[in-house]
Amino acid sequence: MYSRASGLHYPFVGDILSHFQKASSTKTGIYLLQDGSEEPFNIRLHLAKDILTIQEQDVICVSGEPFYSSERTVTIRRQTIGGFGLSIKGGAEHKIPVVISKISKEQKAELSGLLFIGDGILQINGINVRSYRHEEVVQVLRNAGEEVTLTVSFLKRTPAFLKLPLCEDCSCIPSDQSSGTSSPLCDSGLHLNYHPNNTDTLSCSSWPMSPGLRWEKRWVDLRLIPLLHARLSQYVPGTDICRQNAFQVVAVDGVCSGVIQCPSTDECTDWLQAIATNISALTKHNVKKINRNFPVNQQIIYMGWVDEKEQDSVQDRMYTPKFLALRGSSLFKFSAPPVTTWDWTRAEKSFTVYEIMFKILKDSELVDKRKHCFSVQTDSGEDIFFSVELECELLLWEKAFQMATFFEVERIQCKTYACIVDSHLMGLTIDFSMGFVCFDAASKAVLWRYKFSQLKGSSDDGKSKIKFLFQNQDTKLIEAKELEFSNLFAVLHCIHAFFAAKVACLDPMFVSSRNAAMAPVVSTTSTLTAPPQISKIKYTS
Length: 541
Prior knowledge:
nucleus; single chain; structural molecule activity; Pdz3 Domain; 7-stranded antiparallel sheet; Gamma-1-syntrophin; alpha+beta; PDZ; 7 helices
């Protein structure tokens, strides 16, 4: 009739704030960004304590008031040695214009400040070559004469497969391409000495008209991602498919970084941990501010993003981002972070913390390819599965649940549930000080009472009935008590919560961590200790 219960064990670990005490990280590096269906391109990533900045390269005018230009026109002449001093890659076969891939230091093209690595060649002597293939552009340049006027525009999102240098100070030894076939993915050196005796210097055209214009290639902001309440993920949205060495960050307003690709697993993990650290630090600071406006019994313990496993998932949507918050007596689930007091009243769902069960899933218990998962069994027995990105986040949620449950048990001190014993309506009180007390619902007469230490085992039928095995203090005999509840799982979870709180009070490590945790969670004039005037049910013998 009964199935063996898992036992009333509740693991406890130390201070929830230990993961918050890391200093905010700052990092900078050059990586690839895939934005939508575009080919990946080079970006610079900079992490500050409250914002992630994504930058792309662009060419701007830096003489006078800086401004951007879509096109620049440069007229150059072939040199006796080195020709144009340029190398090119790309072409229409890769759906981009031909791009300047190298500029020789020895050539005047570099010194002019008007041509840069990454410039796409749009016109040659007035001929529109935007849609020309690589070899076709090479032929046009070969036959262009001693003076060539190039109309160029810097391609900010040059595909990474072209492997263009990110700086201008690269060596370039142009080769004579007068014979053979050039390749769009290899540098085609433009050493085309149409007039060997020509030693004129490079000159620029009259555009733009303003004299003394100077151009520079710079990193400019492409996207700014505020980190407060931001979420990050290595997974393809809605799936359990983990991107290899790549991740994305989504701001609270929905602005997405795009997929940031790292060269190695270690580097990707470093960035994930650094960003997660900064998000956690901002969350901690925000929680402290919010808690100033909440009474003691409504303090926020922790909140943050998770991915919820869909119960009836379709193939392309297995997971949905959710924002969880442990506040006071409840676990709240939102589709977006609560900002106003009114937002807290509009949670998708809320659960009483001591009537739910948190569990970290072992590898053998994972439901799909996602790692770092936990489940919450609700008061109705439903299992809800959640996923986080890092193991440290998983441990943090575990500590947060434990701390929230303890605070609430300590506050309420006792909880009573209606039950049926031998077809009679009874009440079972779980009391932090006294243990278990069963009484008649009508007369309040106590049928029996046992301390927590007297409970030697329990089992349930998974529907409504619980059998408790208590040891009589005098006879040392085991006494079985069977009770029937309409809310079986709520009762089971509540018993777990009270047992965990009881055990935690005997743990010196917990006592010290509890005192440390209370400081940021409540105001300096408040305490979470249950006041002596807490009303308790009156029993009669």
